[in-house]
Amino acid sequence: MRRGIEMKNKKYNISDIAKMLGVSESSVSRALNGTPGISDALRAKILAFIDEVGYRPNTLAQSLSKGRLNIIALILGDVRNPFYADLTFDIQRLLSESGYMVMLFNSEYDMTRELELIRLAEQFNFAGLILITAKESSTTARLQHLDMPVVLVNRILPHFDGSSVLLDNFKAGYIAVMHLLELGHSKIGFISGHSVSSASNQRYEGYRQALSNFGLSFHEEHMYESDLKIETGYQIAKDFVSQPEKPSAMIIVNDLTAIGFMDGCKQHGLCIPQNLSIVSFDNIRMSSLLGIELTTIDQHVDQMSEHAVALMLKQLSSETHRPERIVLDPTLIVRKTTAPI
Q1: Tell me: the pLDDT tens digits for 283-294?
Q2: Residue-by-residue DSSP string for 228-247
Q3: Which residues of 90-128 are buried (b: 16+ CB within 10 A; e: fewer)?
Q4: CA distances (Å), 131 to each of 166, 213, 324, in order?
Q5: CA trace torsion 265, 257, 336, 328 (10° rounding)
Q6: Which of 16, 142, 253, 283 is deepest in the core (most CB within 10 A)?
Q7: Which residues pair with 167 in a beta bridge?
Q8: Helices 82-97/255-267 angle, 10° precision
Q9: pTM, rounded to two decimals
Q10: Does the pLDDT at position 135 exceed 70?
């Protein structure tokens, strides 16, 4: 028993373990990393001995020896947004299962800060970079010259030929209009997101295309821009309810803005869906709660995060990996904020 305690307290390295077992250092390394090249019996023997002596590999030293930290930088606009929080949770869990840590950065939807964070990830020699809220900006040029794998999530950038996973946001905007048309609505307003967000712009384009296809007029006064925050939705509602000619339905770029907008409308005596139907995007957990029950477009966070991690791992394991673009199909979730006109 005492020998076991002494062995646990002593610090070992791979070379020590290899000598004590009479095997090569590469065999010990293969057993630790789960790579092929040794028999199952030898792998089990090495791992049992490692557990007995309490050996723990120096992950930082291993990463530095390869020239990169075993860390993936994850840049997003605002982790307080439940949609981004769910994505972050899933991505972190999946990367952890593959031996990578995640360093989280909030860009606060600021393009200058986003660029600074990309430079920071490069300076610290992180293994890879996942961007959730990249905007159409000078970011593109910077990404093209990064010496690390990059994956865009729910974004596309002009002239960026790297890997990405995103919702078919044009289709999402289109089917939101189609749902309202089926309920008899013909005057439909729109609350967009940031003007440099590809996801927001594509949803808006889908909305405009659907109106055009069915011969419906677009009214500029029924168009608003938000910053994806619940407070902004509330403020937009204050202006909206004062308008003499209001649409009978609104499409809103994300659930948080929609929830704030609904609250503002209700506080000013506008009943939903009796006086106004609302469709939004994201399908965050909050949107299904009693009293909210928001009709929304599901972005399939679980699939989006799985594909993002898979694209990153492919690039990390192969220098010749070709960029891929994975487009997810949106799903309309009908709840209680839409009704026949």
Answers
A1: 999 999 999 999
A2: S-HHHHHHHHHHHTT-SS--
A3: bbbebbeeeebebbebbbebebeebbebbeebbeeebbb
A4: 12, 34, 15
A5: 160
A6: 253
A7: 328
A8: 160
A9: 0.79
A10: no
pLDDT band at 134, cuts 50/70/90?
low
Q: What are the φ and ψ backbone dihedral angles of 176, each rounded to 5 degrees?
A: -65, -45
pLDDT in tens, 95-121: 998 889 999 999 988 888 888 898 888
CA distances from 288 to 97, 180, 184, 228, 329 (A): 30, 19, 24, 18, 20
Sheet containing 150-153: order of strands: 101-106, 69-76, 126-131, 150-153, 163-167, 325-328
Name residue, tokens 């957990």.
285
Cα–Cα dist 153/155, whole Å: 5
pLDDT tens for residues 172-216?
Answer: 999 999 999 999 999 999 999 988 888 999 999 999 999 999 999
* DSSP class of 317: H
What domains sit in the chain, N to C, each tagged with a CATH number? 2-57 (1.10.260.40), 68-167+301-327 (3.40.50.2300), 169-300 (3.40.50.2300)
Report the C-alpha gap between 135 and 336 in whole angstroms. Answer: 33
Closest by CA position to 109, among listed 78, 88, 130: 78
* Residue type for position 166: L
pLDDT tens-place string over residues 16-66: 888 889 998 888 877 876 667 788 889 888 888 888 887 766 555 554 445
Q: Which residues are CB-neighbours of 315 under 8 A, at least 6 positions away?
A: 128, 149, 151, 163, 321
Structure token digits, residue 107 = 């860009």
Q: Per the structure block, which two tokens stand in for 290?
A: 């009693």
